Amino acid sequence: MRTLKVAIGLGAALLGAGALVFGNSVANAAGPRPAFQMPFPCGQGWTGNNPNSSAHRTPWEIDWNRGGSPGADLGDAVVAAAAGTVVTSAHQGSANGFGNLVVIDHGGGWKSYYAHLRVRTVAKGNRVAHGQKIGEVGNTSRPGNNISPHLHFEVRTTDRSYPSNIQPAYFNGVRFGYPQQTLISHNCGAAPGNPYTPVGVCGAGYQQIDAQPLTAPGVVAGTVDLLYNSSNGNNCVVTIKHVSVGTKNSTSAYLQVRGRQRVTDSGSYAHYAGPIRATARNTCVSWGGSVGSVRYDSPFEHCG
């Protein structure tokens, strides 16, 4: 991950809650943590980093990039990490270094912050769903502060004063691997009426390592998910439907370990296809699946 070129001297003034251009909430005890996902579309891989910025006040803020050169991420979509109501959508001017900032109130005393956006695509008062686009990666900041394009992301609660109210981030139920980690986004939007999840279908001990959305014009038909169980070396593939949930239609999932025959589950299913499990420790796998006419086919990968 490239090093962010953040101007020295922003210090405490950069992120102070009192300097933000919006009204502060009355502090109250935070409720249960919302089910946060990464602030990027389903299946994308991003690297988050805390130490690269001198402006960070805690170990928990995250700056995100995925490109290999300065400016590579400029204009990439930023999406809501969880459902909520937009309480801030404004350029912060000289008040702080956030530039174009969106803040979402998720209820229960939890808020998420998305800073330096090139553009904001939501307005104050809008209700947003998780996975809904709220802006684009940018490099906006206070006048005279030159930074490389990236997304600055925070989770805050209202039960403490700044900066102790900045909380460690959790994505897909797992705490971010501070100080730096590369992750695949599972922010695939809601699957209305589908009670099944990849981990639930594959079983105990499996963790998701990759996901690909099955995208048709204007809709995500489903996701193909690759999971791994480190205790036995097994991979698992499952395709979860997002459309026509509960109605049987053509759905498939497959897994092929390099050097072996492909194993496929294909049929008319109401909720999901799979699970396909195979031992593949230190061996490359090809995986994929489909919902209707929309499909994904991976190369041989995940060889470790």
Entry keywords:
single chain, 304 residues, mainly beta, Glucose Permease (Domain IIA), Immunoglobulin-like, nine-stranded antiparallel sheet, four-stranded antiparallel sheet, 3% helix, globular
Task: Walk me through the topology.
Elements: H1 11-15, E1 45-49, E2 62-65, E3 77-79, E4 84-91, E5 100-107, E6 110-115, E7 119-120, E8 127-128, E9 133-136, E10 151-157, E11 166-167, E12 170-171, E13 174-175, E14 180-184, H2 198-202, E15 207-216, E16 219-229, E17 234-241, E18 249-257, E19 263-269, E20 272-279, E21 285-291, E22 294-297
Q: Can you put this structure into words, describing what you see?
A:
The structure is a single chain. Strand 4 and strand 5 (100-107) form a beta hairpin. The chain is mainly β and 304 residues long. 42% of the residues are buried. Strands 1, 2, 4, 5, 6, 8, 10, 11 and 14 form a 9-stranded antiparallel beta sheet that branches. The chain has 2 domains: 11-184, Glucose Permease (Domain IIA), CATH 2.70.70; 198-297, Immunoglobulin-like (Sandwich). 3% of the residues lie in helices and 41% in strands.
Please give a quick description of this structure.
With 304 residues, the chain is mainly beta. 3% of the residues lie in helices and 41% in strands.
Strand content: 35-45%
Rg, alpha carbons = 20 Å
Question: Class of the largest domain in CATH?
Answer: Mainly Beta
Major β-sheet annotation: 9 strands, antiparallel
What is the CATH fold-level name of the largest domain? Answer: Glucose Permease (Domain IIA)
Please indicate the count of domains.
Answer: 2
Strands, count: 22
Mean pLDDT: 86
* Poorly predicted ranges: 1-19, 21-28
Distance between the termini: 20 Å
Order of helices and strands: HEEEEEEEEEEEEEEHEEEEEEEE
The amount of helix comes to under 10%
Helical run tally: 2
